[in-house]
Write a structure and sequence with these properties.
Blueprint lengths: L7 E2 L6 E2 L2 E2 L2 E3 L20 H7 L1 E9 L3 E9 L4 E9 L4 E8 L12 E8 L3 E8 L4 E8 L8 E7 L9 E6 L5 E17 L2 E5 L5 E9 L5 E11 L5 E8 L12 E4 L2 E4 L4 E3 L8 E4 L5 E9 L2 E6 L2 E6 L2 E9 L5 E17 L1
Parallel strand pairs: 1-4
Antiparallel strand pairs: 2-3, 4-13, 5-6, 5-16, 6-7, 7-8, 9-10, 10-11, 11-12, 12-14, 13-14, 14-15, 14-16, 17-18, 17-27, 18-19, 19-20, 21-22, 22-23, 23-26, 24-25, 25-27, 26-27
Length: 350
Amino acid sequence: MDGLRTIIRSTPEKVVENGQFSLGCYQAPFKEVNFLHANSPYKIDLELVKKLQLREWQAFQIRSKDYFFMIAIYNAKKLALVQFIVFDIRNNKKIRYEKKVPAWKLQVPNTLFGGEASYSSKNFSILVTHDVERHKLSMDIEIKNFQKLPDVKAQITGQHDVEAFRPMVVCLPFSEKRAMYSHKCLMPAVGQVEIGEQKIILSKEEGQLIIDDHKGYYPFPTRYDWVTGMGFTKEGKRIGFNLTHNQALEPIKYNENCLWLDGELHPLPPITVSRPEGYKGTWFIKDEFGYVDLAFEPVVHTAVDVNLLLFRSKYQGPYGYFEGFLKDQKGTKVNIDRMFGMGEDFYLRI
């Protein structure tokens, strides 16, 4: 697969050195994600301007046997929100907790070596503590008296061991001065989630978590397609994937597409997403080299469509099932058999 996939390199300490982005795909976390030290992509080279334009978030997809959770702390400065979604896979039932918040009340760290992501108010709090050196990610969530929905209390711990479970760490260029960073990793997770009187257990044998630690100076407007899924093979191996079609330059060289299999990372080529029957029909995810061939059948939809003159947001985010195959870096076919996951079609002008 040489020449068709990104090359995984050793990781520098910082994502920005001497004002320049360290572009590439890396095998370990950055010690410091210092995006504000980059040369300004804007006419006014002030830290305040860069800070107001930097989009940053942490998002987590979590699986137990019968439930899927989506948790996000999202800060685009002009738009900021916290989100907790639980989906009952057996009964196709979704409960969505989402709150728009002032940007200055969110915290997204610049490191996974001791950093915290958080939001706290009297009825909605999320605290995520990162300690990569000790192979630990811990999450505490409490939501109560929120829009007549059941109260939530959750404690979840991920085994963020980047030697045993290889991450996909990237810094991708959008232009000469604009770039994005992402650290994505599939890991085992354990814990407990209480929703009203219901108690959901994430066991060591079944619990899984994908983190997306993310920062970027994005193009105007921003567009991307993204799909992800996780589960286990018939042989019991932990498996997941991340596939994105975004605005990064030189996508064969710079992309974040990958297969995780039994802790190993397998980079994948650029992909495209087509929807010949619209968002509620089957999505087809393919590359041009025969390494990615997936069909995604949505079962539950989330849609946002806001048009306020200077602000425009269109979003489709269904949950559903993937069928097809991916190939590892040796070209061996890995079957994807009704794997649960989600997709996004995203457009933002802000």
